[in-house]
Write a structure and sequence with these properties.
The chain contains ten helices and 17 strands. The protein has about 350 residues and is of the alpha/beta class. It is globular and about 50 Å long. Helix 2 links the parallel strand 3 and strand 4. The chain has one domain: L-arginine/glycine Amidinotransferase, Chain A, CATH 3.75.10.10. The two termini are about 35 Å apart. Strands 1-5-6-7 form a four-stranded mixed sheet, with helices on both faces. The protein has a four-stranded mixed sheet with strand order 4-3-2-17. A three-stranded mixed sheet has the order 8-9-10. About 25% of the residues lie in helices and about 25% in strands.
């Protein structure tokens, strides 16, 4: 018996990785580190533990000066980049025991170097941060954490553009993927979104940029009300498909629409995939990316309170994160209680 844990399950830490000169952040390294400082300080101020991968502990401690280090654990290891959502461990309960599933990671369909990222979980196991009895080798199948959403009750939400990509698992069909995901994650009700790709998205439509599951048979999704926006038609098709989805019991989902941020462009004029759907859920707080757009930022925060009335919503400026085509959820992976060796938190 396997149960894929929802993001709002009880947690003990957030896994992140510090930008270094060896990552794609090198061209704006001071700005990138300032961005990560803001995120990590917000978490530590809320007494949420951060397990932070880094290349040099001494240098990283200097960058984090001003943070509450009692809530930060530094782990020296190699990695290509900082998007821990997609190469960090995916958590399930299997045979009444918590497991850290280590899926294969190939740089979002062979787009970017991933040789070191792909070894992170294995290195965490070798160093006993992930206990051997918790670690589960699933590396024969490529799966990114940002590509799948669950409600913890058997439903999985994903996108066909990503999971059916020929550069991940050879272009498996939805039926073939259903069988694999049911066997490895324990999900029985799988919903494939076929629309909604955001411009500038390197992930082939990760679900965490578009639509998220929430308690009470709810889907929170990125909408677009501006008919002149180049993404309007695609997001309209996505909304229409969401209205057709049914719960595991055959009922329609409650749909909650988030606004689309105003278009943000890079220095070459390429649109960046800014979205409020890329939020992080913890036990009591939702951390939501903001983009220095006061009206949209405020509306998105108020909207999330509708779906999570018992949570506080805390905004974190992610205007630097989006420059590398990711946002808050992409840069974080929640760690459930007892997934990591508790000794790493001892000071």
């Amino acid at each position: 018996m396997i149960s894929f844990l929802p993001e709002w399950a009880a947690q003990e830490a957030i896994l992140m990785a510090m930008p270094t000169e060896e990552t794609d952040w090198a061209y704006i390294l001071p700005e990138a580190r300032a961005q990560y400082y803001r995120i990590i300080k917000t978490f530590s101020d809320e007494k949420i533990h951060v397990v932070l991968l880094c290349h040099d502990k001494t240098e990283t401690e200097s960058v984090l000066s001003g943070c509450n280090m009692n809530y930060i654990t530094l782990i020296e290891t190699d990695y290509n980049d900082t998007w821990t959502r997609d190469y960090g461990p995916i958590s399930v309960i299997k045979d009444e025991r918590l497991r850290a599933l280590d899926f294969g990671f190939n740089g979002w369909g062979l787009k970017f170097a991933s040789d070191k990222d792909n070894l992170v979980n294995l290195n965490l196991k070798k160093s006993l941060i992930i206990p051997p009895l918790v670690y589960s080798n699933e590396r024969s199948f490529t799966l990114e954490g940002g590509s799948v959403e669950t409600d913890g009750e058997g439903t999985l939400l994903t996108t066909s553009r990503c999971l059916c990509s020929p550069n991940r698992n050879g272009g498996l069909s939805k039926k073939e993927l259903h069988d694999v995901l049911e066997r490895r994650l324990g999900v029985s009700h799988i919903l494939f979104l076929d629309y909604g790709a955001l411009e500038g998205d390197d992930t082939d439509s990760h679900i965490d940029t578009l639509a998220r599951l929430a308690p009470g048979n709810t889907i929170i999704f990125t909408g677009c009300r501006n008919t002149e926006d180049s993404q309007f038609e695609e997001l309209l098709k996505m909304r229409a498909q969401l209205t057709m989805f049914r719960t595991i019991d055959g009922n329609a989902f409650n749909l909650v629409e988030l606004p689309l941020p105003e278009a943000i462009f890079d220095e070459n004029g390429q649109r960046l995939p800014a979205t409020y759907s890329n939020y992080l859920i913890t036990d009591k707080i939702i951390f939501m990316p903001t983009y220095n757009q006061p009206d949209n930022d405020y509306l998105a925060m108020q909207t999330l309170k509708i779906a999570f009335p018992s949570h506080r919503v805390v905004g974190i400026d992610c205007t630097t994160l989006i420059k590398q085509h990711g946002s808050l959820h992409c840069a974080t992976m929640q760690i459930p209680q007892n997934l990591f060796n508790s000794a790493i938190y001892d000071k």
